[in-house]
Amino acid sequence: MRLYAIFGNPVEHSISPILHNFVFKHTGFNGCYTKVLVENGQGLKDIFLGLQIKGANITVPHKEWAYRLADEVLGIAKEIGAVNTWYNDNGKIIAYNTDAPGFYESVRNFNFKQVLILGAGGTAKAIALYFRHKGYEPVILNRSAKRLSYFLEKNFQAFTWDEFRNGSYDLIINTTSAGLSDNTLPAPKELLEKIFSQAQNAVDVIYNKETPFLKLANDMGLITKDGTEMLLYQGILANEIFTDFSIDKKRIESLMRRSLELVG
């Protein structure tokens, strides 16, 4: 049996095992997917190889460590500098980023031109670069300046809360962990209210809950979405990789959607 896992901290909230195990069960694929709490990202590779894991998803806060520790990085992940999917190719770790195309697929039906991304971690990098490839120029907003250097070097507009001068944005994306295990907002409420007052859509990458970010956006009349569909679409892409593309993509999507209905 092949072993798969999600690595992160926290990780207990993850429903990725439900999605992947449902596919394995209903397609007869000989695999099992579990959760592994990893407190120190530097130890990812040792754990992955030590447990003889065939494939893994990596979530916050270890996506940049996953990039650094991989033996080979493929696709847009090379430019992003963060990965969320590992595949064990006879002891060689091949890394991908399925977050970026997964998120884009989840918001394709929204009407937007101007995009504002809250946060500056691995997920923000993935989304920003993928959106640029699709013809958009997202603006980045983060609490501190330290992580903004990456975006400035790549010629994105990037601001701290203190530097930010409110503009008009159609789509606001929260990529921070604010609201995941607490009731915090990803930016000061007054600042978010100004941003939301001119926005149409708000999306949080956190899934299966109405975060304070989404509640505020809902209260102000925006169209909102949590990260469930992002999880779905990135999971479909990851499952294809995990199973060596042996299962039809539409079959994976159908089964994962059924598993989400069971969770909901």
Descriptive labels:
single chain, six-stranded parallel β-sheet, Rossmann fold, 11 helices, 2 domains, six-stranded mixed β-sheet, 264 residues, alpha/beta
Summarize the structure in words.
The protein is α/β, with parallel strands linked by helices and 264 residues long. It has two domains: 132 residues, Rossmann fold (3-Layer(aba) Sandwich); 125 residues, NAD(P)-binding Rossmann-like Domain (Rossmann fold), CATH 3.40.50. It is built from eleven helices and twelve strands. It has a six-stranded mixed β-sheet with strand order 2-1-3-5-6-4, sandwiched between helices. It has a six-stranded parallel β-sheet with strand order 9-8-7-10-11-12, with helices on both faces. α1 links the parallel β1 and β2. The longest helix has 15 residues. The protein is globular. The two termini are 29 Å apart.
